Amino acid sequence: MDRPDEQPRAVESLSAGELIALRTLLADLGQAARRYRFEVAPNPCVGACVLSSGVEIGRGFHLEFGGPHAEVQALRAAAKSGVPRERWDTLVCTLEPCSTEGKTPACRDAIAEAGLRRCIVGELDPDIRHRGLGLKALRERAVEVTLLSGASPLGQVSPHFLSWTRPERLRRKRPWTIAKWAQTRTGQLRPPSDLGEGRWISGPSSLAEVHQLRARVDAIVTGRGTVLADDPRLTVRLPAFTADPPIRVVMDALLRTSPGARLFENPGEGEAGGAVHIIARAGVDPRRARELHRVGATIHTVRSGDDGQPSLREVQGLLWALGVRRVLVEAGPTLLTSCFRAEFVDQVRVYTGAINGGEGGGLAEWLAPERLLEAEHAEVGVDARLDAFVRS
Ligand SMILES: NC(=O)c1ccc[n+]([C@@H]2O[C@H](COP(=O)([O-])OP(=O)(O)OC[C@H]3O[C@@H](n4cnc5c(N)ncnc54)[C@H](OP(=O)(O)O)[C@@H]3O)[C@@H](O)[C@H]2O)c1
């Protein structure tokens, strides 16, 4: 798009040495910001720093979905530097600062209020609804803006954000969906029956990490099969967690979930559980709906898809309408396979435990390298962890 506000300005006022230094800084910030890509998605990875007479005095990154933006983090870091505010002059940011309020206040205001006179921006917002507006808002607040495209290209720093903001994708609103599961070394999601009571496929370090992941989503979705087999609570168990916990959603076509399931119990000490929603097929038995409503569930019905199950397309629309923007699917192979087939999985988190064998099918076909983008492998205790985006 070619709005006047997107035109680079004042580049000519920078010396050749300054230009090289700023491009190097932008490339470095972009590279460092990528470290948080799986925590912030679908938001972009963004890095920012505050300069005082060309010297970096504080840098910050967008660290997690819903958390403060990189610009705000950089301003906070600068505040700790000891350099007086009147000597701060420039904010360098890999992506155009936001002009609208979302989960956090708009960055344009934070930058202007900090008294910064200049903003160097690496890339324009690719979202056509916002593109150029952040720069315009900064100029209106008397901040001189320079666009230095190419040093931290979005195609390298945040390819997931480029595809998420494609106009044809934006037309149908749906939450970003993360599929998470644990599998044995041989790929099964159900452990061998002789594993022993109280033991899981993944170890305690992985189980602890899952609570951090849960804390960063708006909804946890599971299937009736998992509720029946594992009777999970789907709560967040983190010591310092004070935010609204994610809602808990059970996909249950015929409302066969037991009203005695642990999901309906009050969360215990140190755990936070969101409201329980059950999604069924249209035309379900109203008596079952009443029973589940009595124990606290909100019942929704949607049309059936081609497979006779509640249409996942409708479910995505429903979740969006409930204010859900980031979903974690923690289900068995049946629901996870349906989500993959419907092309609703945007990101995967897979723990492979130190256990061989197991029962039932696996999801190996969805982890073929050609289906994934930016895969990252790590060790978590005795388990292996895979994070990746799913190619759309
Ligand atoms: N390793 C792991 O990470 C992990 C995680 C969770 C579960 N598990 C294991 O997985 C096993 C349960 O597997 P599962 O596959 O039966 O459970 P699931 O995938 O959680 O639940 C499947 C059920 O969800 C309901 N459903 C409603 N709408 C659906 C839709 N659109 N698409 C697909 N399903 C829909 C269906 O039951 P209705 O027709 O009755 O609605 C379906 O049978 C258990 O052994 C459990 O321990 C493992």
Highest CATH level, the class of the largest domain:
Alpha Beta
pLDDT < 50 runs, ≥5 residues = 4-9
Tally of separate helices? 13
Average per-residue pLDDT, rounded, comes to 93
Radius of gyration: 23 Å
Please give the largest β-sheet: 9 strands, mixed
CATH homologous superfamily of the largest domain?
Answer: Dihydrofolate Reductase, subunit A
Count of distinct structural domains: 2
Structural class based on helices, strands and sheet pairing: alpha/beta
- Write the CATH architecture name of the largest domain: 3-Layer(aba) Sandwich
Secondary-structure map:
Blueprint: H1 16-33, H2 37-40, E1 47-52, E2 55-61, H3 70-79, E3 90-93, H4 107-113, E4 118-121, H5 133-140, E5 144-147, H6 154-157, H7 159-164, H8 167-170, E6 176-183, E7 188-190, H9 204-215, E8 219-223, H10 224-230, E9 247-251, E10 276-281, H11 286-294, E11 298-302, H12 312-321, E12 326-329, H13 333-341, E13 347-352, E14 359-362, E15 372-380, E16 383-390
Parallel strand pairs: 3-4, 4-5, 6-12, 6-13, 8-9, 8-12, 9-10, 10-11
Antiparallel strand pairs: 1-2, 1-3, 7-14, 13-16, 15-16
This protein binds NADP nicotinamide-adenine-dinucleotide phosphate.
The site of NADP nicotinamide-adenine-dinucleotide phosphate has 27 residues, from strand 6, strand 7, strand 8, helix 10 and helix 13.
